[in-house]
Design goal:
Layout: H1 34-41, E1 52-56, E2 60-61, E3 72-73, H2 75-82, H3 86-92, E4 103-105, H4 109-119, E5 123-127, H5 147-160, E6 164-170, E7 173-176, H6 185-194, E8 200-204, E9 208-211
Parallel strand pairs: 1-5, 5-6
Antiparallel strand pairs: 2-4, 3-4, 6-7, 7-9, 8-9
Length: 212
Amino acid sequence: MVAGQRILLEGTQGTGLSLHHGDYPHVTTRDTSVSGCLADAGIAPSNVRKIIMVCRTYPIRVGGPSGPMAHEVDMPEIHRRSGIPLEELEKNERPTTTNRPRRIAEFDWVQFRDSVQLNGPTDIALTFVDYFDVGNRRVFRFEQLSQETISFVEEIERISGRPVSLLSTNFNLAQRYRPEGMVTEAELEELITNCPTLYHMAERGSWDSIKQ
């Protein structure tokens, strides 16, 4: 930063696993909030321009006695709701470290409000919207999403007071939509230009598609 360079800092693990703010003893060894990440990296909060809080439509924990989750569901239920093949869900929802099937639950609105308050995001990135409807994988405009997905995004924005500026419509694909007041094309291009190892443009349409 002294040299005028920009930094993209990615946090590890979710806020619910924070040593200070999670459900002890089901936590990790550090503070996973934005303030904890900045402290670990030696970056002053006044130097931060944008904070993107990433949320899954269906939160997860590693399989086994890994801590409380509100309203757990199973993969057959996600398959029934979304239309995604059960075999695909069971293959993808396994961590690389333990290879144990993940636990999955309904969206936790209480945890979401707490995370917004704790992290103070400027934007929300919502992942796994195809878990609402597999048809979301084929859309390229916001209004083409299923009505359930659109309603969910609107509720996220209403409760958080922040825009949902990134949507993930597939396991490794994030789609960005930009109503008035959201992230500009210049800001996105700047992110891609300054962090070429993290993102590349997959294609252009009514939305910008970014593949990790």
